[in-house]
Design a protein that fits this description.
By secondary structure, the chain is α+β, with helices and mostly antiparallel strands. The strands form 8 sheets. A 5-stranded antiparallel beta sheet has the order 1-2-3-5-4, with helices on both faces. A 5-stranded antiparallel beta sheet has the order 19-20-21-23-22, with helices on one face. A hairpin with a 6-residue loop joins strand 12 and strand 13. Helix 19 packs antiparallel against helix 22. The longest helix is centred in the last third of the chain and has 20 residues. 47% of the residues are buried.
Length: 751
């Protein structure tokens, strides 16, 4: 977002926009000229188009006068509202659809012939186009004169036997800016995995491509130059309004050649904006009928244009047709049966078509648009390198609902992402999203880089699987950690050392029962995850036990056998962790410039702070999901700790800060109440004296969590809002009270 554009900032903030308009609204269909104007449709609480909003800055404010004049002319002056942004030379105007400055006159004329209040809005692009359904009619109202052009396209095609939906030849409400069409019952072909239907879609498109171009002598020409220019314009918009999300898209654009990468192909009548939702399907197998809609962008061009746009649109929407074995092949078969020509899409064409849509997530302002923008960008980068993007995807893919994701290996300057989630049968599955942006899902219970998994998985349930790195299988009486060949012995040694360290502090930890070259078997640790106990009556008791245990743990010195041989983790090392996470998120296009700068500044502060006089035994990744509480232990209640194979000697504030910041995040996520979070923060503060070191470590933890959750769509937006709020308050005080606890406070926790 352009931080200096106050008007655009307002439109992008649904809370401020709702207060301004006086009803729940959010902006979508954004168009922006930073520093000049911003326009958007306003959706109501039911996600239906309610109206429009526009900001005008400087000389553009004159357009506001015209809007007021139009509203007055059509008798809706009282419905058009406006406000000044103080000190910004910017006016904001808004109103219901009927007051749209470019459409209001035409809508008022239509309303005199029809009861528009009874119409249903199908599509609305403010100041450009409104599509309404009224009984068995569809009305298309636009700012430009479109009727003659569209009628002049659809009628000759229909007469030639091309299955297109044509407009009414005459209707009382029709004009140069309003065309009237029949409502065609049926469904669109997007999401349709029926092979017979997809075959019929291919045939319908084939019939369009076989139409004699002489029927439409006024068609414009569209080809590679126009498609690449559309991609460049879309990336340029992102660079203006969301520069943090634009870097990966710009890299993908740089991979596109200037000249047409495809073979010389015949010029045919093309749809120009073809996708499966432009096909209305009536009937079912064995004889579905497919008709083509919306030929606004019909042109003379190579057939590959329609297939590139179709493929890009399906990839952008993650259409299930991509996952249905044989669906794309059936479409291609239908096309070939009609035209005698095979379907092939040079990857650069598909990449350009996808980049032409890379700003759509931002324009739609749906939650998680940054993640979707990054996905499209990475996918476009891979498509640009493919010889035939259609053939690559014709066999179909596997689908999982992603629950966790991590950055993985970097290849060709683009980092691979590892994902984990559940498939339709509820099985835990793992996969990767490489530089191509396409998920590759591993078969359940297998991993070529973890060969032992196929042997261990049948013994129980896979509960963790990070593709190519590790998996955990829960059996009847143990947990088996599966690793790459040769890595298990070191993990077994670290696990045994961690268990000894825990015991020395009075904590329970999983015992290592056995290991080989690629597996380590751990005993089941009794207890329930602390993460889910915040509403229990014994919540404070859990954290008193933690404070006592961590005080003992940090008191262990070099002379204690349990602490001997632990590696050190210095302030420079922690700064490196922050730099690594920031780099990963920036490479993936998931971190904006502001947070990247904050990360670098925090890393510099960690280095400048140096190390304390004494480094203490530390978990190094301590949070609430690493702790178990056994309230039914036979000899006193007992706290257990997991994953101590990262144990080291580090700054005493590292574990308590990580725990406290995670507790505050759980509050922001709505998982813990404010009092429950406060208990954990107070316990964490009770074991730390150094307020200055706490404050720096706290900022570093916030940055790291922003980066980690950038890869997890479910919580990304929540964490981003939480982190921004924490950061704004950090200038006045620490995110959490870091005043030195009094001896009485400390005693209340650790005695």
């Amino acid at each position: 977002m352009s931080l200096g554009d106050a008007g655009l900032s307002l439109v992008l903030d649904p809370d401020r926009l709702t207060i301004l308009v006086g009803r729940p609204v959010r902006a979508t269909h954004l168009r922006a000229k930073p520093g000049v104007s911003a326009t958007a449709a306003l959706m109501d609480e039911h996600d239906r188009p309610w109206g429009w909003v526009r900001t005008l800055t400087g000389q553009a404010r004159v357009k506001g006068d015209k809007a007021r004049a139009v509203a007055d002319e059509v008798g809706l002056a009282g419905e058009l509202r406006e406000a000044e942004l103080p000190g910004r030379d910017t006016v904001v105007q808004w109103g219901p659809v009927a007051t749209d400055p470019r459409l209001a006159r035409e809508l008022a004329r239509v309303a005199r012939a029809l009861t528009v209040q009874d119409a249903t809005v199908l599509r609305y692009n403010p100041l450009r186009r409104l599509v309404l359904r009224h009984d068995d009619l569809v009305l298309r109202v636009t700012e430009d004169r479109h009727r003659r052009r569209l009628v002049g396209t659809t009628r000759p095609l229909a007469a030639a036997g091309v299955p297109v939906v044509g407009s009414w030849r005459s209707h009382p409400v029709a004009s140069s800016r309003t065309s009237v069409w029949p409502w065609v019952p049926g469904r669109d072909a997007s999401g349709t995995t029926d092979l017979v239907t997809q075959h019929a879609v291919g045939e319908a498109l084939g019939r369009l491509h076989l139409a004699d171009p002489a029927l439409l002598p006024d068609l414009p020409r569209r080809g590679w130059a126009q498609l690449r220019a559309a991609a460049a314009d879309s990336v340029a918009l992102l660079e203006q309004v969301a520069p943090g999300a634009a870097s990966a898209a710009a890299r993908a654009l740089a991979r596109l050649p200037e000249q047409d990468p495809g073979p010389h192909l015949p010029q045919v009548v093309v749809h120009g904006d073809f996708s499966l939702d432009q096909c209305v399907v009536a009937g079912t197998a064995p004889a579905p009928v497919v008709r083509l809609l919306d030929l606004d962008r019909a042109a003379l061009g190579a057939p590959v244009l329609d297939f590139a746009v179709l493929l890009a649109t399906a990839l952008a929407s993650d259409d299930p047709v991509l996952d249905a074995p044989g669906a794309l092949a059936a479409l291609a078969d239908g096309y070939a049966a009609r035209t005698g020509r095979p379907v092939a899409v040079p990857g650069a064409w598909a990449a350009a078509a996808l980049l032409a849509r890379v700003a759509e997530p931002w324009r739609g302002q749906r939650p998680g648009w940054q993640v979707e923008t990054a996905r499209r960008s990475l996918l476009a980068a891979r498509l640009a390198q493919e010889e035939d993007a259609w053939a690559e995807r014709a066999p179909g893919r596997q689908v999982i609902t992603v629950q966790r994701a991590w950055p993985g290996r970097a290849r060709d300057g683009v980092r691979e992402t590892t994902v984990e989630g559940r498939d339709a049968d509820g099985r835990l599955r793992a996969g990767t999203v490489g530089p191509d942006g396409i998920p590759r899902v591993l078969p359940p219970g297998t991993d070529p880089r973890l060969p032992a998994l196929s042997r261990v998985a049948p013994l129980g349930e896979v509960v963790v699987h990070r593709a190519g790195r590790r998996a955990v299988v829960r059996t009847a009486d143990a947990y088996v950690k599966v690793l790459r060949p040769g890595r298990a012995p070191a993990v077994a040694r670290a696990g045994a050392a961690g268990a000894a360290l825990a015991r020395a502090a009075g904590l329970a930890a999983p015992e290592v029962l056995g290991s080989d070259e690629d597996t380590v078997t751990f005993a089941v640790l009794p207890g329930r995850a602390v993460h889910g106990l915040s509403a229990d009556a014994g919540w404070t008791e859990v954290w008193r036990a933690w404070a006592r245990a961590w005080t003992r743990l940090q008191a262990l010195g070099p002379g204690d056998p349990a602490a001997a041989g632990l590696p050190t983790h210095t302030g420079d090392d922690e700064a490196g962790v922050v730099d690594t996470w920031v780099g990963r998120a920036v490479e993936a296009g998931l971190l904006d410039d502001l947070w990247a700068r904050r990360g670098r500044e925090v890393a510099d502060r960690l280095r400048a702070a140096g190390d304390p006089d004494r480094l203490v035994p530390t978990h190094r990744d301590l949070h609430d999901k690493q702790l178990l509480w056994d309230g039914a232990a036979p000899v006193g209640r007992r706290l257990g700790v997991l994953d101590l194979d990262t144990a080291c000697l580090a700054d005493p504030v590292l574990d308590p800060v990580n725990l406290a910041v995670h507790a505050d995040l759980r509050r922001a996520q709505g998982l813990w109440s404010d009092p429950a979070s406060g208990v954990v923060v107070a316990a964490a503060r009770s074991v730390v004296d150094d307020a200055d070191r706490w404050a720096v470590a706290e900022l570093a933890t916030v940055v790291r969590l922003v980066c980690v959750y950038a890869f997890r769509p479910q919580w990304r937006e929540t964490v981003a809002r939480w982190a921004e709020d924490r950061w704004e308050r950090a200038d006045e005080s620490s995110l959490i009270d870091v005043s030195r606890p009094s001896p009485a406070d400390r005693a209340s926790w650790v005695s």
